[in-house]
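Good day; I would like, with your permission, to put a structural problem before you. The record follows directly beneath this note:
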Amino acid sequence: MAETGETPASRPGLTIDARDGHSAPKWEDEGVMAGTAGDEAAPLVGRAQELNLLTALLDEVATRGQALVLRGEPGIGKSRLLSATARTARERGISVLTTTGVQSEAHLPFAGLHQLLRPVRARVAELPVAQRAALDAAFGLTHEVAPEHYRIAMAALDLVSEVAADAPLLVVVEDAQWLDRPTSEVLAFVARRIESDPIIMLAAARDGYPSVLGDAGLPEHRLAGLDDATAGALLDAAAPELPLAARTRVLREAAGNPLALLELPAVAGGPEDGQWVPGGLPLTERLERAFAARVSELPDETRLVTA
């Protein structure tokens, strides 16, 4: 959870996640709600390579800033990896700023940037007047028209650089494919200019979606499904009493997707003789939420077939 106070980013090692759902455009809001994505109770298995990769970025943060985009299908483990990396960062005294793209705010200019920077609102006073004015206008806090995006991006870059001057900074961007475009443009601008600052930016983006940040030419790492042995170990840990026939079917239909491996056992109960009704297993509510956006974008005829 984010700590709050008069100057929340002025103390080294402060966790400053921003995942609030408030829509009030108030730069001086008192509280900041925070959280982490993913099922933290489930074991994080089969991702040693990715964890080592992300930890290596933290290892080098004192000498150079870097950015990385994690790509993969829904439920593949992007959020869990970002959450684990953020936890490691906090343990090392690295500050953490977070923003999450949501479809309902994708049409609101700079909504994602506002969420990201709210916890460091007090530091805006350290910026030049023109940059303070640019951010205030971008967030609708003045009657001025928002300036060109370059000025806003420069202000955001200088602000996170000021924060990182106290302690190294990790910037976490969840569901980058749903960020509003102006925020994506600003974050892409920042990501390409942090090499000389102790700042790491990690962004997660779903496969199959256009994203300004995801398509900004930043280094990428794609998450594949778990291999058969690891998928079996995860399933056995999550549902040790699952009948053999149901276990086989879950492994086949999950295809290495961790979320599917955790969710499908709840709907996979059936006879041991393997006599199943034709068709795939029904989706749980979590799986429906994870894949609903993708299905909604299919043509009407295709949606009827998948219904």
The first helix runs from residue 48 to 59. Residues 149 and 229 are 48 Å apart (CA to CA). The chain has two domains: 15-222, 228-296. The longest strand covers residues 199-206.
